[in-house]
Amino acid sequence: MSAQAVFTPPAQPTVPVAGGGLFPVHRIYCVGRNYAEHAQEMGFSGREPPFFFMKPADAVVPVAEGETGTIAYPPLTQNLHHEIELVVAIGTGGHQIAAADALKHIYGYAVGLDMTRRDLQNDMKKQGRPWCIGKAFDASAPIGPIVPIAQTGALASGAITLAVNGTPRQKGDLSELIWNVAETIETLSQAWTLQPGDLIFTGTPAGVGAVVAGDLMEGAIAGLGTLRVAVR
């Protein structure tokens, strides 16, 4: 007789796929300080080895094409920051993937927001403690539809921008990534076995800043459309 779950398990987090279908989310990996100007505005410089943090799969806030998503202003913070990012969706898993083979493992790309409780993150940094509380909170990963790589080709360049209430805040180009997508997959897959359903937030350009209730964020990446998220 098989054992039964002691409570009804929650639904699998999913992200819509452009053109139809749902992408089940396994894990969310994030790359820290992966644009030089953003690293500098955070007090760092140089091409340091890539480092990673994680968010829970159910932190995703999927936003369908043409719609505006909403997130609540989270508790415990007075300094909620936006970070616009290219998200890579893994379709084929693997361990110790060579950069030259990385494209074979990509299902597609999406526009994402790595929302950050900056004050809490900074407090944890000062104390030398993990900063999960600043990054891995509920609804901290809004994301637009995943566009299959078959439609986009490999994204190595293209504008990445974010405006708040129509005012430009962040502006960069994917070609400015310190560690490109292939290198990131290579390094990440040395530490974890990547699985279908993994999402990789690849880093944010300079210009991060605070948002408050009532603000509308509009993030865009060339070839992937616009992600609109309102803070309530």
Task: Outline the structure in words.
The chain has 232 residues and is an alpha+beta fold. The protein is built from five helices and 18 strands. Strand 1 and strand 2 form a beta hairpin.
Give a short synopsis of this structure.
The protein is α+β, with helices and mostly antiparallel strands and 232 residues long.
Estimate percent helicity.
Answer: 10-25%
Overall geometry: globular
**Beta-strand content:** 25-35%
Rg calc: 17 Å
> How many strands, what sense, and barrel or not for the largest sheet?
6 strands, mixed
Written as H for each helix and E for each strand, in order along the chain, the element string is: EEEHEEEEEEEHHEEHEEHEEEE
Put simply, the count of helices is 5
Q: Calculate the mean pLDDT score and round it.
A: 95
| Separation of the first and last Cα atoms | 48 Å
Question: How are the secondary structure elements laid out?
Answer:
Blueprint: E1 14-16, E2 22-24, E3 28-31, H1 36-41, E4 52-55, E5 60-62, E6 68-71, E7 80-82, E8 84-90, E9 106-113, E10 116-117, H2 118-127, H3 132-135, E11 141-143, E12 147-148, H4 149-152, E13 159-164, E14 167-173, H5 181-191, E15 199-201, E16 209-211, E17 216-221, E18 225-231
Parallel strand pairs: 3-15, 5-11, 6-18
Antiparallel strand pairs: 1-2, 3-4, 7-10, 7-16, 8-9, 8-15, 9-12, 13-14, 13-17, 17-18
